[in-house]
Amino acid sequence: MEIGKAEKLMDKENLKQSRRDDRRDIGRKNEIFKNGIKGIKKITGKYNTSNPLTEVKISCPCGLKWTWQEHASSRTEQKREERTMTWIKECTKNLRTHSLKMTQGGMKIKLEALTDMILLLQVTTNPTPDLGTRSLIYDTGPWRGENLLAGIETFFQKNAYHPFATCGNTECGKTGPIPMSTITNITTSEQPLPTRSIEHFCEGETCFKTDPTNFRSTRHSTRDRTFLDKAGIFDFRTIASGGTIREPVSAFREFSQFISGIPSHKAPGFSRYRRIFLNKPRSRSKGASIS
Predict the structure, then answer these.
(1) Residue 125 structural domain
(2) Which of 11, 73, 107, 219 has its CA 20 to 30 A from that of 174?
(3) DSSP structure string for the chain
(4) Model-wide pTM > 0.85
(5) Is residue 42 part of a domain?
């Protein structure tokens, strides 16, 4: 009789946990759909699928900036700006709409079309002696029109990278690739329309160029667990390290302490009993064991 009651109670608890797990799965999927890294709604801000997508907000590289060289102070400021202006006009003659700004600290050039970033990087490889280090300029938009697709491509490409994607240059080794959309206007009979592609840019001081391995040189690599230790993932233990109840216990107090530390609503272990049955044992016999 007792065994039959226990089996019925176990079946009832199994049914309850199955239903509870189903509800959790549904809630988890809804959360991922709304706010997960693959949820396009997160960057569009639109929760009504009947509305067309018109803009996105995401950080994208949209220009370059330079600092003035220290030795440039020997020239007058006007001559320095004239020389730099001549060079930058020659570099950007094939670019679409862009804005240029010179300040006391250096020069900035900002593009209107995100797909021109690769071309801008290529034509400004050899600056004038007046200019020093160059770096990327970022903006979050909102991106509309022809930049809308580039913003969406950036969003999904960032989520597709390996968590520890590293530059293929052994002298650099920088993590965190920067996707840049580009358009190739060269057409053929087989490809009559311009071709879109994504380049994978390394912002490291050693490189500052696209990575030929597309940041996939470490796609099969895994890091050690030091980052988990630093995050405190293993700081808390319900049972002391090395603890077990698979051996005979000398006193019921040890058994009771172990059972009280088992988390609730968990799947059964080797014993095939859930905590609800172990938490209130009917007899307290010494030398008890669970295997």
Answers:
(1) 60-210
(2) 107
(3) -HHHHHHHHHHHHHHHHHHHHHHHHHHHHHHHHHHSTT-THHHH----TTSPP--B---EEEEEEEEEPGGGGGS-HHHHHHHHHHHHHHHTTTS-SEEEEE-SSEEEEEES-GGGHHHHHHHTSS--TTEEEEEEEEE---B-THHHHHHHHHHHHHHHS-TT-B-S-TTT--B--EEEEEEE----SS--SPEEEEEEEE--TTT-EE-TTTT-TTTT----THHHHHTTTTS--SS-TT--SSS--SSHHHHHHHHHTSPSS----TT---HHHHSS-S---TT----
(4) no
(5) no
Number of CB atoms found within 10 A of residue 146's CB: 13
Residue 251 identity: A
- Do 244 and 159 lie in one domain? The reply is no
Cβ neighbours of 252 (radius 10 Å): 15
Residue 99, domain member (yes or no): yes
Q: Along the 291 residues of the chain, how does pLDDT read in single tens digits?
A: 677 777 888 888 888 888 888 888 887 777 666 655 455 655 665 555 556 778 899 999 999 999 888 754 555 677 888 888 888 888 888 888 888 888 888 889 999 999 999 999 988 888 888 888 889 999 998 999 889 999 999 998 888 888 788 888 888 878 888 999 998 877 777 777 788 889 999 988 888 888 888 888 777 777 777 777 787 776 765 555 566 656 665 656 666 776 676 666 666 666 666 655 555 544 444 444 443
Structural domain count, the chain: 2
